[in-house]
Amino acid sequence: MMQTECRRCPLRKFPIFVKMTDREVDFMQSFKVGELKVDAGTTLMMEGSNSPQLYTPLRGMGLRYKTFESGERQVLNFVLPGDFIGLQAGVMHEMQHSVEATTHMTLCVFDRKALWTMFRDYPERAFDLTWLAAVEEHFLGESLAAVGHMDGLGRVARAFVRLHDRALAIDLVTKDGMHLPYKQQDLADALGLSLVHTNKTLKKLREREIAIWRDGQLKILSYPKLCAMAELSEAREPVLRPLI
Amino acid sequence: MMQTECRRCPLRKFPIFVKMTDREVDFMQSFKVGELKVDAGTTLMMEGSNSPQLYTPLRGMGLRYKTFESGERQVLNFVLPGDFIGLQAGVMHEMQHSVEATTHMTLCVFDRKALWTMFRDYPERAFDLTWLAAVEEHFLGESLAAVGHMDGLGRVARAFVRLHDRALAIDLVTKDGMHLPYKQQDLADALGLSLVHTNKTLKKLREREIAIWRDGQLKILSYPKLCAMAELSEAREPVLRPLI
DNA sequence: CGGGCTCTTGACACAAGTCAAATCGCGTGG
DNA sequence: CCACGCGATTTGACTTGTGTCAAGAGCCCG
Question: Nearest nt (C1') to B185 (CA)?
């Protein structure tokens, strides 16, 4: 099957992604070594390993997480189309977290060795890479703040708002809501809550008719109320990010 | 007073910092526009602002934090000599957190506009900048994991181990322990604990003769026990990081 | 039909938050 | 020189959010 050309990349058109010049698009095309389709459950990157490849998901969702000696996990964030996977492996010696596909995923594959070419010959793109790292840092900081200071309801609300915003930005929200293929355990691990407590919190949101998450589908009934619970302003300017 | 030349930078010699070529050191010298001394309490960067300057602390300590509408703070991490301040402002439109000096600090000052020169003419240094961002991301991920999964004692232990390691790496640990000029409230805000609970946890560490933090001085009595509580192996290879 | 996930719910325990007050330094001004 | 106020640290008593345990329900799949 024909793989998608960067020129026709389905993601580039969305306004959350920083505009690229034609020359940059052409370079990205040469940087791209292929396309990968994986099934749900596939581990894309392993904590401690050093992948020779870097990815940008085109379709599907996944998650990044760290594992503890005890067997518990901390989910760092949810991976959506347009994210970049493997930057740590590219610049540090090894990945500090794992990445797993939650659904079937289609990913652009880049060669890690080409990263250096980027820095040498395409400073604009290298700059974008740093920018991207800064964006990741920003969102991690947000999560840390949420887990550090908000109660269960607030954390869940915030996660829903963030996911919804991101999905909306890449046109993944329909009148029925958005596809959210994770398990309650995944959300619990992301928010530092127990599974049971997460479940009870979701029930509250359902009962108060604020948001319903069922059968992998998230439907927000009252965005204003959800934002209020998440301590987020309804009118936020979206975080712009580069697309690699 | 004569300012320190990069060539004689007191930090470069420490092994946690990535080695630089002479050419790179010379470039950093040209990148450096001055040296700044600030008093304790000075706000170096403001959340939402866009500083025209970037800093690398040479001496002194500070902290990065986010503020909530409620007035509470989340401390993201503690700033020690060799960190880099302002990368977000440099690549994103504005800072997403504030940075404050906790003690008197001496900082190398770089011009934000020179950042682009770095990307254009010194790809190795641009690479290091990305690397640095990845290191920050890594530590934030660690903090998130700690706050998400460990109890008070574990979090405090982990913070102490991390701070101690970092201080040791830049020769700030003496037989009396290390200088740790923060308030209990700062630590509490970093760990997502209340001040009262943090205080009681510190008392436990004192009573069990594991670590004593008093009068701005942290003395670790049993590093093995502290590591065990922090769920960290005693033999960890240090995280290498570039120096900007 | 049975086994294995995931999701739900209820009962109970406990870690951590909140409230309140005492103590200790320390700098300031009378 | 001492009284005072202020910030940081301690401590105790009480409350509560969240974790843990346990069991059942719904569902898919072999």
Answer: D8
**Which CATH number applies to B151-229: 3.40.50.2000, 2.60.40.60, 1.10.10.10, 3.40.1130.10?**
1.10.10.10
Domain ranges in chain A are 6-143, 150-229
- Tell me, rounded to whole angstroms, the distance of Cα A27 from its chain centroid: 24
Residue of B nearest to A75 (CA): B145
Domain A6-143 and domain A150-229, same fold? Reply is no
Which fold would CATH assign to domain A150-229? Arc Repressor Mutant, subunit A (1.10.10)
Within 10 A of B16 (CB to CB), how many other CB atoms are there?
16
pLDDT tens for each residue of chain B, 244 residues long: 567 788 899 999 999 999 999 999 999 999 999 999 999 999 999 999 999 999 999 999 999 999 998 889 999 999 999 999 999 999 998 999 999 999 999 999 999 998 999 999 999 999 999 999 999 999 999 999 999 999 999 999 999 999 999 999 999 999 999 999 999 999 999 999 999 999 999 999 999 999 999 999 999 999 999 999 999 999 899 999 999 9
**Cβ A213 vs Cβ A202: under 8 Å:** yes
Please give the model's pTM, rounded to 2 decimal places. Answer: 0.95
E runs forming strands in B69-216: 73-79, 98-101, 105-111, 173-174, 177-179, 211-214
A6-143 — its CATH code? 2.60.120.10
Nearest-by-Cβ selection for A123 from B68, B119, B131: B119
Q: Which of residues 3-32 of B touch A (CB under 8 A)?
A: none
The CA distance from B103 to B105, in Å, is 6
Q: Look-up: residue for tokens 């900048």?
A: B129
